[in-house]
Amino acid sequence: MMKLNRPRWSPLLWRIALLSTVLLFHNPVVHGNDEISSESQPAGDAEQYETPTVDPKRMYFAEHFDDLFDGASDAIEKRWVKSKAKKDDAAEEVAKYDGEWAVEQPQRPILANDYGLVLKSKAKHAAIASPLLLNRPFVFEDKPLVVQYEVNLQEGQECGGSYIKLLSVGDGTKDLKQFHDKTPYTIMFGPDKCGNDVKLHFIFRHVNPINGTITEKHCNKQKDRLDDPFKDKRPHLYQLIIRPDNTYTIRVDHKTVNEGSLLTNFTPAVNPPAEIDDPEDRKPENWDDREKIPDPEATKPDDWNEDEPAQIPDPKATKPAGWLDDVEEMVPDSSAVKPEDWDNDMDGEWEPPLIPNPMCEKAVGCGLWKAPMVPNPNYKGKWRPPLIANVNYQGKWAPRKISNPDFFEDLTPFRMTPIAAVGIELWSMSNDILFDNIVICDDESVADEWAAQTFDLKVKTLDRQAGDAKAEIGRKKKNDDYPAPEHEQDELVGGAGEEAEDDGRSSKTKLNAAATGSSGSRSASSAGEAYAENEDERDGDEAEEDEEDDEAQEEAQEMEAGEEEASSSDAPVDSKNSEGGEGLKKRRARKD
Known about the structure:
Organism: Anopheles merus
Region (Disordered): 263-322, 466-592
Protein name: Calnexin
CATH topology of the domain at 59-277 and 412-464: Jelly Rolls
Subcellular location: Endoplasmic reticulum membrane
Keywords: Chaperone, Disulfide bond, Endoplasmic reticulum, Membrane, Signal, Transmembrane, Transmembrane helix
Distance between the termini: 27 Å
Strand content: 15-25%
């Protein structure tokens, strides 16, 4: 009875089928509006985020921006005021504060439902401000000031700032729509960069206790440069703490980068010097402040020739053979044509431009030969007498000191002007600067608690993603450098292939049983109606496979017989001349 053909799948087809299955499970199909962009949604392994609670009893200011996103352009104005002012010292076309602000998620979302304030525009003046909670000002008394906020330079930063200003209580901050660069502030804090100049500003405006004048005091620079926040496009946490004992601490991502005292680490100093130079004092005409003078008794040596040049022609050099003395290095360009608009009266007589002489290209050299210059061994230069100590030296002159009429001593610079609002006033060459989680309080633990619910979760998520990506790159590199042996790769796919092949055999067995069961005996042609039209081709393949299986069994039996014969004889057996070997050769030839 003719065997029914059973489908056989090649290893390549099995690999393609398994790969398609894996891709299907890892990339579920979405339809229509259900499609979700991976770039606009947080990663699946993101930390669980909940908007932190604002407690006016513990905070003077707290802003997470999460509830200011509702699709409306004016939603931000529920708590923030966009400036309508103009700069006084700028041209009309650039004087307006017309920068664009928006509340939105980061370009690469990290936490679900986490939003921030984004400066969308660049190369424009932008200003926005918000009053403190319950309009309760922060007064510098017996508790520290803690300022903390996040910045994400999503497009990097080449020139511009991302600092904030703590606006002072007073008439200048009553109408925040008029907030501009001259609006009085108490503290300015945050990063700034232009070119290679990188800064982390901490500036406070100090009020002179005698005359009321205000001077900006700039904190000394930290030791280490802060380059990463301007180029890594990640969120960074900036924290400033000022204490009643006049000490301060600046942290970036919870790491202390600068600390010191308001009294000693600022320029200009908070307190002026007790004495100053007398502006009326003048240096006497006979004051000799020359520490050394030329030796008046020294004389120039007789053999000192000041006329000797520093270099002379090399006396040992000789003109190379083949040098063309009578040929000019440059010759007029014979192909040049006088311009039509050339005016001899205005431009002078026209002459063709000079070009390198073609005759000199293959020659050693052309024109007048000159020996190369070498240092002159007799050169000494201009003679000068040696210097000796000045016996009349009176020291460096300095004006006398007098008491400073503007002297004062402020031992509590911590007591600054009270703060009424938070303002952001920038001009930047980068767009999409994201501000988030601005906090002002008088307790470090409150700020740390807020950071633990926001910034720290972002860092954990980003670090986990970076670790997973690094591990995946390592796995891929290892697989590329050390690929699995071919038989192992076949085993990985072959296991599933064998199972499917077994299923195919069992189904074909059932089909054969059905073909011979109810009707007693069915012809091969009637059974073949259940298969494709290429029945003959499949039968031929099946017959060839069965023949190969039979030949393999015969080969195994003959090899076993040969081994038994070899084991029964003391003499070694040459497999090439053995009967089994000849039979194997014949069968292989017949198979071919």
